[in-house]
Amino acid sequence: MERWLARGAAVLLVLAVSFGVITAGGPAMAKEIVLFSAVDGRLVHADGSPATGVRISRNWRRGSREAGDEATTDGTGRFAFPEIAETPGFFASLLPGSEPTVQRMTAHAESGDVLLWQAIKNSPERHAELEGKPTKIVCRVDAEPGDGGLYWGTCVADQD
Amino acid sequence: MPVTALRPRESALMANMIYGGLQLDDPDQIMAGAVGDLNTRWAPVGDTIKGRSGVGPKFMKRNSNFAMVLQRKGAPTEKAVVIRGTQKTSLRDWLTNGNMGVTPGPGGTVVHMGFNRVFKSILPDVDAAVTGSRTDLLHVVGHSLGGAIATHMATHYALAGRSVALYTYGAPRPGFYDFSRKVRSAVGPNNVYRVYDLRDPVPMVPLFPFFHPNSPSDGIRVGGSTGRISVGAHDMESNYIRQVGESDWTALTREGAGYKSHQGLDYWLEEAGRATRIPGASLGLWALGKALQALLKLVAVSVQFVIGVAATTLDLMAWLLTKAVEMAGKIGSSALRWIGLALRWLGRGAYNAGVTAGQVTRAFLRYVLDLMTRAIFTPINAAINAFT
User: Fold this and answer.
1) Containing H/E element for A152?
2) pLDDT higher at B7 or A98
3) Are strands B137-143 and B75-83 parallel, antiparallel or unpaired?
4) Pairwise CA distance, residues B13 & B316, whole Å
5) How many Cβ pairs within 8 Å bridge chains A and B?
6) Looking at CB atoms within 10 Å, which of B36, B111, B123, B385 has the fewest?
7) Is the pLDDT of residue B59 over 50?
8) Chain B contact for A135 (CB, 8 A cutoff)
9) With 50 as the cut, is the pLDDT of residue A15 above it?
């Protein structure tokens, strides 16, 4: 009897999943997990003048997985990074719970390294960093990183 | 005593912020790294607080940031304890374990053993921060598992005579009925802000006889009443923060008040009858849960008494339901109707006609209840089994 029940239960479980009794998606959850939205940034000095030719490294870590890329500011101090996204594994997409991503951007200036941006992204959605708006930011290359801006670092939203 | 509550968005930002502790250690950096501008109004008190999580031998690991204590800038006697929930990888430890036991809680109540263990592991450090300087008002905030622990924490401080307000998002049920009454009487019914989304599976567990803390409106429901159960609805940052928006508690309570929670058995069986036409619908499961609670109250068996004979929560539910079926008249026929609706919710409506009182053994009921639990959490179990 017990064995029959166990087998019946197993069949029903498969049915429950295949008929979509539980769904991973829904309006609140994107299929893709955006780890780092595209960044449109400007790097400036204290007087507002552009910091040109500065190498900026970007890193992100989710769980124990870590990766990064680099960009260099142009003649107007602008730098850009593409969106970083991953598709969760089938099972991972079905688990409730949080798996935040820590995001960092560091400028490698002549005077030394400056942590421009350190944020925690706890949402899978695009543009969650600025609560729905594109990540358009202006960052100081010669300021002490702190909590006065958007996140930890030296960046604020770019109004230009 | 009513206290001046945090605005919904403020409490939601806190509940989300604490997840930064999974990646960072510095409390100022966790605050600044979170979405929103909490750090312009609140400052951390002391270090992040480590907790113990996991079950069995893994429980002893004490390496993860679980909580922070904050104080309001310019008004440091107003403090907040913020507690995080589970990582995706460890949720199973708490929510899918139908065999997780119970343990004595505050004031002789019965609470969930897992939640109580984490609560006890963080209490000494939380207490050091709360009592280290004058505290006149204490907000206790948590999401998911953190909400269940926050419920313990708020009750603990309220029983110690402090002014406390409790805010939970998508929290599971923390204890038995007597504990839920204790929360209400100690913290005060108007100081409990329990926010949930019907599509979020986590507030549905553990099943009866676990209860949410009573509050006048039976919690504050956001996100409407349609849609299927979805783990995405459990997300703090992409669902709950958005759902509360800039609303105040009065508006949120009014918007979510579409269903009256203190209806009788017949009302809930009717609701379940309508809502279970779509197998797996979140509204159907909710109505079934309400009907079950109403039914078992009618059975009038002391839950405390039955704990002695039932090994697990599911056993206990099966035992109580069997009692209901055995009872003559209205209770018996209502119990049979409930079982039929439960089977229909599971997509097994064909069984409906065949269920008679003679067939309803404890083993059969346990099987039905087990199926319901699994229908909610099968994907989670599947995920765990695939990797372990």
Assistant:
1) strand A152-153
2) B7
3) parallel
4) 38
5) 192
6) B385
7) no
8) no
9) no
Span B197-206, mean pLDDT? 79
Query: In degrees, to the nearest 5, what angle opens at C-alpha B195 toward C-alphas B189 and B197?
Result: 140
**Residue B279 to residue A19, Cβ atoms within 8 A:** yes
Contact B375, A84 (CB under 8 A): no
Q: How many secondary structure helices (H) and strands (E) does chain A include?
A: 1, 11
Do A94 and B367 lie within an 8 Å CB cutoff? no
What token pair was written down for B193? 């802000």
3-state secondary structure of B37: coil
What SS3 state is found at A10?
helix
Return the structure tokens found at A100: 């935040």
**Distance of alpha carbon B143 from alpha carbon B150, whole angstroms:** 9
C-alpha Rg value of chain B to the nearest Å: 21
CB contact under 8 A, A63 and B89: yes
The pLDDT, as a whole number, for residue A83 is 97
Partner-chain contact A23 B234, CB within 8 Å: no
Test the A interface: residue of B41, B237, B246 with most A CBs within 10 Å: B237
* Interface with B, mutate which of A2, A5, A14, A21 (most B CBs under 10 A): A21
Instruction: Tell me which chain A residues have a C-beta less than 8 angstroms from the C-beta of B238.
Output: 28-30, 123-125, 128
Q: Do A29 and B231 touch (CB under 8 A)?
A: yes
Q: Grade residue A67 by pLDDT with cuts at 50, 70 and 90.
A: very high
The H or E element spanning position B382 is helix B362-387
Nearest neighbour of A19 by CB, restricted to B20, B29, B347: B347
Contact A44, A61 (CB under 8 A): no
- Buried b / exposed e over A44-63, threshold 16 CB at 10 Å, is beeeeebbeebebebbbbbe
CA distance B199 to chain A (A): 9
Contact B41, B13 (CB under 8 A): no
Instruction: State whether residue A28 sits within 8 Å of chain B by CB.
Output: yes
Q: Is B245 on the interface with A (CB under 8 A)?
A: no
Each residue of B321-347: pLDDT tens digit? 887 887 777 888 888 888 888 888 888
Q: Judge: A120–B19 Cβ closer than 8 Å, yes or no.
A: yes
Chain B residue closest in CA terms to A97: B88
Q: Which residues contact B215 (CB under 8 A, 6 or more apart)?
A: B184, B189, B190, B192, B193, B194
pLDDT at residue B110, as a whole number: 77
Q: Are B90 and B53 in contact (CB under 8 A)?
A: yes
For residue A8, pLDDT beyond 60: no
Q: In A, which residues are within 8 Å of B201 by CB distance?
A: 22, 96
| Positions of E strands within B95-223 | 102-104, 110-112, 137-143, 164-169, 192-197, 220-222
